[in-house]
Design goal:
globular
Amino acid sequence: MALRFLKNAIGRGRSGPSEHLYAAAVQAARNQKWYDGFEVPDSVDGRFDMLALHLFLLQNRLKDAPDGQAVMQGVLEVFVADMDQNLRELGVGDPSMGREVRAMVEAVHGRFAAYASGLADPGAAGLSTALARNVYRDDRRDGPAPGALAGYVKAAVARLAETPLADILEGRLQFPPVEFGGSQT
């Protein structure tokens, strides 16, 4: 659904950095490795969580950059338009649309805060706990998945920090490969 919206937007000439950055986040979130190797639930919620995580990674990279907040605001506007369209396709009607989209935006901002706090924690437990609570919906999740996902987040933060800011501001972004158990995709 999300890629169809983006293709339609790009086809109508609304192709700019925000649309391209959002498309990169959607593409990264759709990697099947999340749902197989990392045990993220392959559901609407699980896919939403992986999209929110990749939007966080982008926001984290842009937060202190000149013009970064304006670009991120554009990305979030594309996100809201995409969520609106997806909800309509799922049968949500106009009377509750605003409430549903607002809840999604609040969920994304809540995850941004939790992940930023987790990254600021010098130990790995803070980020793993935030990911377990938000992605896996369990503070006490057993197994390697939350720790492996925390490792990906830290590697992605480091890699995005090395990506030239000018490239990102112009809409050119590639998230790092997904690695779990020694394999890459």
